[in-house]
Write a structure and sequence with these properties.
The protein is α/β, with parallel strands linked by helices. It has a single domain, classed as NAD(P)-binding Rossmann-like Domain (Rossmann fold, 3-Layer(aba) Sandwich), CATH 3.40.50. The protein is about 40% helix and about 20% strand. The protein is built from five helices and seven strands, in the order E-H-E-E-H-E-H-E-H-E-H-E. Strands 3-2-1-4-5-6-7 form a seven-stranded parallel sheet, with helices on both faces. The longest helix has 29 residues. The model has no long low-confidence stretch (mean pLDDT about 95). It comes from Roseomonas nitratireducens.
């Protein structure tokens, strides 16, 4: 009898937090799929348990195709940010950012949820941001703050809907700038993602706020 390793898919894979999350889950025996718009840029980060593939977080069809084989843990780490003061954001840019920051997360969830529902288990984990808690912290990032607030709301409403079904939806809200060698070292934050995934049924947390 063949036993396949559990699968973790990381949308928004890159050399920072995405790679750290992938490494941490691979270290726990997961087969990790790292999804990026241009995976060739990150080819050097592929490893024995980390496979890279192409997906555009702003394109629901692209996400559905990339996630067609299902996953046990979905990590949504993609984001898009237009730097402008809130009164100066182009509405079209705000919509484009929101498409990646929130709608892409929902599209990814909807792609993997049918199988998770059938199995009665699975984890949906989102990379949140401290701007969702304090949107005035950095005014030029107002569009991203709106996106992270929307993502936090999506994560918490999915948590309320899906926890009774044994499916864990939650956010790791990172209240600081991710940088190696700091209190917000990506490897330390990746541990919080694994901790959230490990919550037992009946004790699922909707959020971990990582303050360093």
């Amino acid at each position: 009898m063949n036993h396949h390793p559990p699968r973790c898919s990381v949308i928004g894979f890159g050399p920072g937090l995405g790679h750290a999350i992938a490494r941490r889950f691979a270290g726990e025996g997961f087969a990790v799929l790292g999804l990026a718009r241009d995976p060739a840029r990150h080819a050097a980060l592929a490893a024995e348990r980390i496979t890279l593939a192409a997906a555009d977080a702003g394109d629901p069809d692209s996400l559905a195709a990339a996630l067609a084989d299902g996953t046990d843990v979905l990590v949504y780490n993609a984001y898009r940010a237009t730097m402008a003061a809130p009164s100066e954001i182009d509405p079209a840019a705000l919509v484009a950012d929101f498409r990646v920051n929130v709608a892409g997360a929902l599209a990814a969830v909807q792609s993997v949820l049918p199988r998770m529902r059938a199995q009665g288990r699975g984890s949906l984990i989102f990379t949140g941001g401290g701007l969702a808690l304090d949107p005035t912290g950095w005014l030029p990032a107002a569009s991203l703050a709106i996106g992270k607030a929307g993502l936090r709301s999506l994560a918490q409403t999915l948590h309320a809907e899906l926890a009774p079904l044994g499916i864990h939806a939650g956010t790791v809200t990172v209240a600081g700038a991710v940088a190696p060698g700091t209190a917000f070292d990506p490897d330390r934050i990746a541990e919080a993602f694994l901790d959230l995934h490990r919550d037992p049924p009946g004790a699922f947390r909707a959020e971990i706020i990582f303050r360093g």
